[in-house]
Amino acid sequence: MSSPFFSTESGLSAYGWTDELEQSFEPYRAAGLTPARIARVDRGLCDAITADGSVRADISALYSPDPLQAPCTGDWAALRHGADPALVALLPRRTAIVRSSASRSSHGQVLAANVDTVAIAVSLAGALDAARLERLLTLAWESGAQPLIVLTKADLATDADAVQDEARALAPGVDILVTSVATSQNIDVLTALLSGTTVLLGSSGAGKSTLGNALLGDELLATGTVRAADGKGRHTTVRRELVPLPGGGVLIDTPGLRGISLYGGADGLEQVFAEIEELSEHCRFGDCAHNSEPGCAVQAAIQAGELAERRLASYRKLQRENAWAASRTDARLRGERTDRQKAITSHLRATYRFRDRQT
Questions:
Q1: Average pLDDT over residues 293-319
Q2: Which residues are known binding-site members for GTP?
Q3: Each residue of 246-266: pLDDT tens digit?
Q4: pLDDT tens digit sequence for 126-177
Q5: Which residues are documented as binding site?
Q6: What SS3 string covers the chain?
Q7: How much is the average pLDDT of 26-35?
Q8: Domains of the chain as residue ranges with CATH
Q9: Which has more pLDDT, 191 or 65?
Q10: Taking the model in full, what pTM does it have?
Q11: pLDDT band, residue 64 (cuts 50/70/90)
Q12: Which residues are annotated as a binding site for Zn(2+)?
């Protein structure tokens, strides 16, 4: 049985290999290395796609204490062939979806790399969680990719149009598509919209894997039912994996995101809350906190019913979270610099002591 990760149609070009990547890879090729794209990472190994097929490769040479530097699904890498294939270098990432690590440490976690479209799956089987959608949109915009909202399970919706309108108000400039795998509603439209590398993001139970299988035309991704009590899924997708789409491009499925903490999302926040950013430019004071300051354009818009107070509260919350993540990162970097300086000082002292003993 052929690997679900490999398509023989166009070699690596089917996985996003470009002339620019080829040029940047020349030094590696001259060293006898082969380009590969990481399809899945699992316990120190990965499934890597090459022009000749899928190989299982060791990634221990790429170990880094910083999770941001760790190999990730979607990365392009230099592969050393042989009895024990191994990845020895990563190519610079064009885009990367990054969130704060689940441990709430000062490190970030890369969910997927070199992504063109972030398809955010939102189930129509329940009420829209506006705050959660804003978080996912911030994550998507910050990555450098283009977000797309896919409203799933339209066959179970009570008022799909109302939810679509609500989502549109939260996501100016973002395409929104109502779909149903059960009835095939707009699946062909979604297929036509996707190109390059697409990643599926969303909560457990949003229907990501079911949607992914519909796009792939095969049951390649694990699916499961949602809990009747709260409508949440059971994490049927346990790791990120990249698979080729029949019509071209590739799809990355991800586990359901229960915790979505921002990591350096300032640009993403500006995109998601563009109306607040624009209103802020008309406040009387440049450092207006949008509380009770005179001449606050944001508060004036709330009083006039042009801006929801919930929207401002969500914006502030994400700003605080982003600032906290930035401060933790700065503190960690300062600590690392201090540790390096202490190590240098200790080494110098040991050198002086040794020199003194020789005299």
A1: 95
A2: 152-155, 202-210
A3: 888 999 988 866 667 778 768
A4: 899 999 999 999 999 999 999 999 999 999 999 999 999 999 999 988 999 9
A5: 152-155, 202-210, 283, 288, 290, 296
A6: CCCCCCCCCCHHHHHCCCHHHHHHHHHHHHCCCEEEEEEEEECCEEEEEECCEEEEEECHHHCCCCHHHCCCCCCEEEEECCCCCEEEEECCCCCEEEEECCCCCCCEEEEEECCCEEEEEEECCCCCCHHHHHHHHHHHHHHCCEEEEEEECHHHCCCHHHHHHHHHHHCCCCEEEECECCCCECHHHHHHHCCCEEEEEECCCCCHHHHHHHHHCCCCCCCCCCCCCCCCCCCCCCCCEEEECCCCCEEEECCCCCCCCCCCCHHHHHHHCHHHHHHHCCCCCCCCCCCCCCCCHHHHHHHCCCCCHHHHHHHHHHHHHHHHHHHHHHHHHHHHHHHHHHHHHHHHHHHHHHHHHHC
A7: 96
A8: 11-90 (2.40.50.140), 96-253 (3.40.50.300)
A9: 191
A10: 0.82
A11: confident
A12: 283, 288, 290, 296
